[in-house]
Amino acid sequence: MPRSGILAPREPAIDLVKIISEGTYTNFASALKEFVSNAYDADAARVHLSVDEDCNRITIHDDGHGMKLADFGDVYASIARGGKQPRNVPKGKTSKGRFRIGRFGIGALAIINAAGVFMVRSTKKGSNSGFEAKIDLQALRSQFGKGEDLSKWWQFQYKEWDNEPKESHYTEVVCEGLSEGVKQFLQRPGESQLGEVFGSTRQLSGIDELAWQLGIICPVVYASGYPVPSGDLKRPQDNLVFAKAGKLKKDGFEVFLNGREVKREILLPSYAKSFKANTKKQLAFQRDLGYSIRCVHSAPGLTPSYEGYLVVQAFQVVPEELRGILIRVRGVGVGWHRTFNLQAKAPSTLYPNLSGEIWVDGLDDALQFDRESFREDHPLYMQLQNQFAAILEEEAKEFRQRSARRVAKLRPPMPDAETALPGTTAPQHTGGEPDTPQQPQETVAKPPAQVRRHQPTGQELLLPLDIFAAMPDSPQSFASLLNQINGCWTWQYYEACALVCRRLLEVMIIELYTRRKLQHELHDPQTRMFIGLKRLINKLNGDARFGLGKEFTDGLDKVKSLGDIAAHDHRIRIRSSDFERATLRFSIERLASLIAQC
Prior knowledge:
The structure is a single chain. The chain has helices spanning 16-22, 28-41, 69-77, 137-142, 180-187, 206-217, 239-251, 279-284, 379-410, 476-490, 494-515, 533-541, 550-568, 581-596, and strands at residues 3-7, 46-51, 57-62, 117-123, 130-136, 156-161, 170-176, 254-257, 260-262, 291-297, 305-313, 324-329, 332-333, 354-361, 414-415, 453-454. By secondary structure, the chain is of the alpha+beta class. It folds into three domains: 3-187, Heat Shock Protein 90; 277-406, Ribosomal Protein S5, domain 2; 455-596. The strands form three sheets. A nine-stranded mixed beta sheet has the order 1-6-5-4-7-3-2-8-9. Helix 12 (533-541) runs antiparallel to helix 13. The longest helix has 32 residues, at 379-410.
């Protein structure tokens, strides 16, 4: 005979009012991760998630060892309880030898704000009994704000039966009456599909984005076997990448969403669609020239301990949701990729080009209750943050060195003194003031068909060769102007150098507005031509859409003024000391970053 009743769990170890008011999860995939993690801990081989046609219900079915009603009361219904460890199983491991994920027992609270009804059906391996337990989450939420103890509303209606086949074992979670926000997300159409190149997961349909997110944070295999091309991996330096990917395969854990397998969609380097197939692209895909793979480990005895990999590529990572470092605790992602708030420790051009995964042990005390984030003022988190500050400083140096090597392969070098054009004299120092160049003779001759060239060193350049690294699709004119600036600087033609710097700022501001489809705002109403640089700077300074401070636009004014003097005042000779190199570089890098965000 079926039995039924009310399951009133032991007093929850949480403040239900706080959970309902703040929301356990801000992301639907993170809520579902809890049920996938429970299936993993139950030694399931397969988990099937199914969303109905109206996006009103989602069902999560796994073939794990299942539960009895008492297990449900311990693990799902009672909060912050981890359940009992099975006998003869090493601490922290499942019967299959998997490292257990769920030690907190958030259970049904994972979905408390996303559904109206939560229901669980299960039968335990080796038992002929099964049960179903249900709670009305909408009724629970309706009591919020009435000043009552919500614990008495945290109760489950249940029924049990004893006619299950003994070989049967499963758990099925049903979340019905999904919230309007979740429905709108799941019903959203997409302009891109999984397997294609896309700039952001927001370009995917809601179902595809959910699959992508689950693949990132859950313990499933990489879509391509590894997070980087297998042919680029080397032993022993990349053994950690081999080990992490191998463990996922060994676990034999598969997740499906509406019949399609969910995998970890990470394959780096990954560049935007607009990245054209040319020599530049070929270099960008070469390891140690276009991108780097670095395996990192904490020092022995350090708490928290960590291990993982970092990839820094030539241009921005796509989709943008992969930019930063994902922290994994017991194999699952905590939140999403993050920067550790270390932007001040490395150039701004590094972070959009960085992606990685770090497996951390010993950071549990710093976790927020939602398991999506950390307490950033916790000493353990701050210690991890400091460790990565040092690592990223090293990565920034190598990033610049790779950029310089790539540019050196692509950039036509300057002529040297031995092969200067006939009728000219290459600049030479004669012991006088170093800023005084030797002027070329006035005679002009046609250049020879072929000349040998000289490659300037990094110390000879006014601007770094990787200054446009944040822009994978920077216009060719930018590179041309950069070459002219550094060429004039190397040859000590400082008036010409100041003029071209002024020109570069002008075209970059116009490019910024053009990419935002705002170029019409820069036209003179009378002539329909672009306004001058002074008015361009004033326009940018007062444009709240870009959020630039006066300090930045003051820097633009300084660059403009030097160019104006070089162009119009023949009484003044420009010297190298007249260039504020840091101001010039900061101005161009900031504009490049703004353009890259368009």
